[in-house]
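Board notes (copied after class):
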Amino acid sequence: NCSVVISGERIGSPVVDRPDVLVAFNRPSLEKFAPDVREGGLILYDSLARAFEPPEGVTAISVPATEIALSRGVEQATNTAMFGALMERGELDLPREAFGAAFERTFAKKPKLIPLNLEILEAGARSVRSNL
């Protein structure tokens, strides 16, 4: 598992006990970490994990992240599709342009990968629009 703390202020500790957002790629992770999500929080989970009943006060959204990545022939980009869903939900409070810029920096040495990853990012975003 991996915890990420994003803040506009100084971060005292990167340890996360009660996350605002959980991104789960498989059923075991979903079941293990969902109870820790704070009330009012969000769970994004890969649709391959099947239907899931979130803890009370927590919103859970199924994202077809693996399906999106596989449909473009890049299973390794499942996380990119999920990142697009997170971007669309706005939970990170970052401008949309920041996400595309991050991919441009990440793939600066492999520029041919940028358009495909941006397409997968956008597909992930589209997949959750009806849940806004």
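Comment from the instructor: The longest strand covers residues 42-46. The chain has one domain: 21-131.
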